[in-house]
Amino acid sequence: MPRYARKRSKTHLYHVMLRGNNREKIFSDEADKLKIINILEDKKKDREYCLYAYCVMDNHIHLIIKEDMSPVSRIVKRIAASYSYYFNKKYTRIGHVFQERYKSENIEDERYLLSAIRYVHQNPLKAGIGTLEGYKWSSYGDYLGKGRKVADTGELLKMISDSKESALSEFIRLNQEFSEETFLDIVEDKEINESNVADYIGRYLSEKGLNQEDLKSADFKSVREELIRFLLERSNLSGRRIASSLGLNRETVRKITMSRDLSP
Question: 13-176, superfamily in CATH?
């Protein structure tokens, strides 16, 4: 199948996602995650691009990039090449590290930009591996002044308000607003899906000697929370779908999702 040229963004803004070849973990440990972040910072020194947001997961990375001196294709190619060299040398391997063609989508307006950044920052939250502030490998901390200052936070905050204090307050509010929007999504094969979720819930409750109505009772709060965490970890179902499957309201599931703060 022939490849078609990507449509260029009129704003020069892109949401880019690079993932491991064959969905393999390519950012396995802290050293790997730190290396890719250092590469992002290093490539910016030549004014190749502005980086508004990033999030490093175990087998993929999300970037919100604005082209500067280089086109997005060259930017991504240089980032991938640098990390591939490091990764293959460290693990004494050869061959592709990243999936052959990166995924990207154009960002043509400010509203979509802010929504995409929120999506990127909420990746660990939705994957059940951390909270916004607790996850060390995203740019959210950069905006709070607690990160590595790799992201170009100043330019983005000025889009929100001329007042730095007001801009930061609104940025935090937007990012903490739980969203089920999907952008460049990675769908991993997990054991629980739409076709078998009811069976899993049924078996889980049967082992506890409970029924679905019991989940609404305060007496079984710990069981309810454990089951929600189980579904978050072992499925790609949205919070809305999990709530519906359990007969609970979405806010109950959202609170469990937001409270997860595991070390990466």
Answer: Transposase IS200-like (3.30.70.1290)
